[in-house]
Specification:
nine-stranded mixed beta sheet; 2 domains; globular; Purple Acid Phosphatase, chain A, domain 2; single chain; alpha/beta; six-stranded mixed beta sheet
């Protein structure tokens, strides 16, 4: 596995061989044109040769690169969730079956991002309010197809610096990139940059607070502020990033839990960040409820994907919306020297209790899985918050039947 921060290449499936070949021919033509320009400009005496960056921009101008980034909500591992994983593994923890139904959406993305809400250490597992999650979760993350995860949350310090270190080691052993909490100052300064079909995408992650637990070191967890995020984004671009995706975990100090509308603090931070050309898009989670996907300063902001998995539900005395979540799919295009998000589609999902399988609602209804009344209610709640808009659409756009 590459060291954190080193580019990694995702390979497209064989089904795309023909389209790959056509794209390759177009890129070769653009490359030949760019090289011809470079030679011509340098051969006339006094002309300036094109740099490698100029050649890449010429290639992308002739043949833009399209790719999809996936982002999803809280992996919030309460005791009933890990107990179910223990049953599924026959006495060993196996979290992967809980994500089987959403795996196609994750694995098909060119870059799949997840949010690890709770620390993972080999110590005895613990649930709310001070979490400790079995490290086997990292294997389930890898098996589902996630490429990189953020580990900055209001629970990052639940197991102090040891929890941060062990979480990173579990993800390292599983072969998953990670960022947001760190074992050293050097690790904090090295951004995760993933090579996606030749486009270098940086992934940065922050939390707004840590539930009042003081950080062992200034570098242990990324705390969100405009200056900190933009400084890190600037460093990522200097290290070669073409695009910067920022994950913001909204803690209780900036937005009340279960609130479906962004707070003034959320809006303020999002506006300041999207005003910068350094930022490509923002994704987030934290209030355990889905929040709108908005376009701010012509950049997409997925304020909250809700819970991806948890034990939260009306049976636990919480709102029905705490079982709702979404998988955001950002349709990105790199053209010339610029990367932008063209559209965002989203897959409403529901945490089915008591088996804790995460169900894509449209697919579950089509297959006859889950309670159709609960599923339709969840879809209705999520779509009422996110809606249908210009370049923002649910998958499926309408439920079957």
């Amino acid at each position: 596995m590459p060291a954190p921060g080193e580019p990694r290449t995702r390979h497209r499936p064989r089904a795309a061989h023909r389209s790959r070949r056509l794209r390759a021919l177009a890129v070769l033509a653009a490359t030949a044109l760019a090289i011809g320009l470079a030679v011509g400009s340098g051969a006339g005496g006094g002309g300036k040769s094109l740099s490698p960056g100029d050649v890449v921009r010429a290639q992308r101008e002739a043949q833009p690169v399209r790719f999809t980034v996936e982002a999803s909500g809280d992996l919030l591992i309460h005791s009933p969730v890990w107990e179910r994983a223990l049953v599924l593994g026959g006495g060993q923890y196996d979290f992967a079956p809980l994500f089987t139904e959403i795996k196609p959406y994750v694995a098909r993305a060119d870059l799949a991002l997840c949010h690890v809400e709770t620390p993972m250490t080999p110590a005895a597992p613990a649930s709310y309010p001070i979490f400790n999650t079995p490290p086997e979760l990292a294997k389930g993350i890898k098996a589902t197809g996630w490429d990189a995860c953020d580990t900055a949350s209001n629970h990052s310090l639940d197991q102090t610096q040891t929890g941060i270190d062990d979480t990173g080691e579990a993800l390292d052993h599983a072969g998953v990139e990670h960022t947001g909490s760190f074992p050293s100052p050097a690790a904090q300064r090295k951004p995760v940059i993933v090579d996606v079909h030749g486009v270098k995408v940086a992934f940065l992650a922050y939390t707004t607070d840590t539930n009042g637990i003081p950080s062992p070191h200034t570098w242990s967890v990324n705390i969100a502020s405009p200056d900190a995020v933009l400084a890190d984004a600037r460093r990522a671009h200097k290290l070669g990033a073409d695009a910067v995706i920022v994950n913001l975990h909204w803690g209780g100090e900036i937005v009340p839990e279960y609130q479906s509308e962004p707070s003034p603090g959320q809006l303020s931070l999002a506006k300041k960040l999207t005003a910068s050309s350094l930022i490509t898009a923002i994704v987030g989670q934290g209030p355990h409820a889905v929040q709108p996907i908005e376009r701010i300063n012509d950049k997409f902001v997925v304020f909250s994907e809700g819970n991806l998995i948890s034990n939260q539900s009306p049976e636990a005395g919480l709102p029905a919306s705490s079982q709702d979540g979404l998988i955001a799919l950002l349709d990105c295009v790199a053209k010339g020297g610029h990367v932008r998000v063209r559209d965002v589609s989203y897959v409403p999902v529901f945490v089915n209790h008591p088996d804790f399988e995460v169900l894509p609602i449209g697919d579950a209804l089509r297959k006859g899985e889950g309670d159709p009344t609960l599923l339709r209610g969840s879809y209705g709640r999520t779509v009422s918050v996110i809606g249908h808009g210009t370049h923002i659409e649910p998958l499926p756009p309408k439920l079957p039947g």
